[in-house]
């Protein structure tokens, strides 16, 4: 698809892009016509937070919280839907205790966890026994396959374990070399492999961003859903918006574009240049609804 501002575009900081598709234009129209029933769902890493080599150092774009806080009171709900543990996203995003974000919801672990700003509470699932088994076997596997020596490292997320290759000398080669052995390890312990941007995550099955988005939108009786993402794990949410559209609920698919992952670019209604572009879009929506 593409970014898709037309030749008559308004280049002011608060201009809204023209979606490339008819479904996207209908989604944006519905959003602006009835914002009080619009639900905004946003991925975290690569969408609200720029990608950095160390996940512990990832932080929301500096304009993200102000844009979210300006938009949230004008729509039905704003939620962050992430592969991170919810409380990690809350911390790295700086989302707690922000005026305007009093009702923010963070759905962590692809929707298996939920943190509510209104109460400060976290609902988290029971641990899957396969994660402990994988945690125990993983160091040996990384050593045997030479992955440890190639600069991969492990992020223990509690309910999942992620093997990162971004800091390896050849991140793509390290990623590809690990695919099969990690798939075998995950399968033996009842887990699935979630591939992402230079990361292979071993996590429990049964929840994905599509199911989470659908359930969240239905719980709020959303009249329109905006979803923004950047990575393969966001594709189920894209599919969920497509399904909602087929059922009569308009939606807007936003791609936080990168050269690393191109799958979402082909399917988006609006493509923006990374987290800075996402945040500018959120600010423009808030400005339009002011
Ligand atoms: O669902 P998301 O919010 O997009 O989270 C997906 C994964 O994001 C994190 O990894 C990615 O971001 C890191 C920090 O910028 C980067 O170093 C890494 O290469 C990316 O894959 C996070 O560390 C994972 O646990 C998430 O599953």
TrEMBL record:
Pathway it works in: Glycan biosynthesis; trehalose biosynthesis
GO molecular function: trehalose-phosphatase activity
EC number(s) reported in the record: 3.1.3.12
Biased composition annotated in UniProt, kind: Basic and acidic residues: 1-13
Any one Pfam family match given in the protein's UniProt record, by short name: Trehalose_PPase
UniProt superkingdom: Bacteria
Keywords: Hydrolase, Magnesium, Metal-binding
Region (Disordered): 1-21
Reactions catalysed according to its record: alpha,alpha-trehalose 6-phosphate + H2O = alpha,alpha-trehalose + phosphate
Reported cofactor(s): Mg(2+)
Tagged with keyword Signal: no
Broadest EC class assigned to this enzyme: hydrolase
PANTHER family, per the entry: TREHALOSE 6-PHOSPHATE PHOSPHATASE
Similarity section: Belongs to the trehalose phosphatase family.
Purpose of the protein: Removes the phosphate from trehalose 6-phosphate to produce free trehalose.
Protein name, per record: Trehalose 6-phosphate phosphatase
UniProt organism field: Streptomyces ardesiacus
């Amino acid at each position: 698809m593409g970014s898709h501002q037309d030749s008559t575009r308004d280049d002011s900081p608060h201009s809204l892009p023209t979606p490339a598709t008819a479904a996207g234009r209908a989604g944006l129209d519905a959003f602006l016509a009835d914002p009080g029933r619009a639900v905004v769902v946003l991925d975290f890493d690569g969408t609200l937070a720029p990608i950095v080599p160390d996940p512990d150092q990832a932080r929301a774009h500096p304009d993200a919280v102000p844009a979210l806080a300006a938009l949230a009171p004008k729509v039905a709900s704003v939620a962050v839907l992430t592969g991170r543990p919810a409380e990690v996203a809350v911390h790295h995003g700086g989302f707690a205790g922000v005026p305007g974000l009093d009702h923010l919801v963070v759905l962590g672990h692809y929707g298996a966890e939920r943190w509510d700003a209104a109460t400060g509470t976290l609902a988290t699932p029971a641990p899957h026994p396969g994660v402990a088994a994988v945690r125990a076997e993983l160091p040996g596997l990384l050593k045997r396959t030479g992955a440890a020596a190639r600069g991969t490292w492990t992020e223990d997320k509690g309910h999942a374990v992620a093997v990162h290759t971004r800091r390896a000398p050849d991140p793509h080669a390290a990623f590809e070399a690990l695919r099969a052995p990690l798939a075998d390890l995950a399968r033996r312990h009842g887990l699935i492999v979630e591939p992402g941007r230079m990361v292979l995550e071993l996590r429990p099955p049964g929840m994905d961003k599509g199911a989470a988005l659908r359930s969240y939108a239905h719980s709020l009786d959303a009249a329109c859903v905006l979803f923004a993402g950047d990575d393969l794990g966001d594709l189920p949410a894209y599919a969920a918006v497509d399904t909602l559209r087929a059922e009569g609920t308009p939606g807007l698919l936003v791609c936080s574009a990168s050269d690393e992952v191109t799958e979402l670019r082909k399917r988006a209604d609006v493509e923006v240049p990374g987290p800075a572009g996402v945040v500018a879009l959120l600010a423009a929506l808030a400005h339009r609804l002011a």
